[in-house]
Write a structure and sequence with these properties.
This protein has 224 residues and is of the alpha/beta class. The strands form two sheets. Strands 6-7-8-3-9-10 form a six-stranded mixed β-sheet, with helices on both faces. A four-stranded antiparallel β-sheet has the order 2-1-4-5, with helices on one face. β9 and β10 form a beta hairpin. The chain has a single domain, classed as 3-Layer(aba) Sandwich (Rossmann fold). The protein has seven helices and ten strands. 32% of the residues lie in helices and 28% in strands. α5 packs parallel to α6. One of its GO terms (molecular function) is ATP binding.
Amino acid sequence: MIEARQLRKVFGQGENEVIALHDINLSIAENEFVAIMGTSGSGKSTLMNLLGCLDRPSEGSYQLNGKLISEMNDEELSAIRNQHIGFIFQSFHLLPRLTAAENVALPLRYTEIPTEQGLVRAQALLEQVGLGHRMQHKPHEMSGGQRQRVAIARALVNKPKVIFADEPTGNLDSKTSDEIMQILTDLHQQGNTIVMVTHEDEIAAYARRVIRMRDGKIIEDKVC
């Protein structure tokens, strides 16, 4: 599913140059559940951005589902994100004026799927994450945990090859965090590939493989 070779990411130039990633080699198979861990500045978020096609490496090659991502232009990267990737963010990134169902269906606006068909798919996914009774509610009318469930449903709406979750429980209390992680565990058991960034050991424990980073390098890669 994911094949990264000698990935480097450099920010700035000359005296201001910062090497955020040093020669990363990483393979992730289909249906793995991987947690990427590290302190602030370790490079985990930079790596997530590269793997999620939100950025391009300075050097090295990256393939996602057999497609060479590292040589694509911005338009091609956008198409890959829309067709193959689902994102779950710490801050939810829901549009405040849209209902839960409309937020979930939003990524389908950039496809050929008709609006009504997209809303039907969105409603089914909201049922799946336990929010069938909140379909017409807007984000401000929901709790943090409910908003994250909406974000998970949105990540699934384009039937992605891989789900990237960036600190998915970072803004949630422990009980709600456990509920969200159980949803991700269920999705993994249903066949989804999940790559999650977290700094919390108790959250990483839900994954089946833990990659630890420090100073832009992978220092440990362990199957749990």
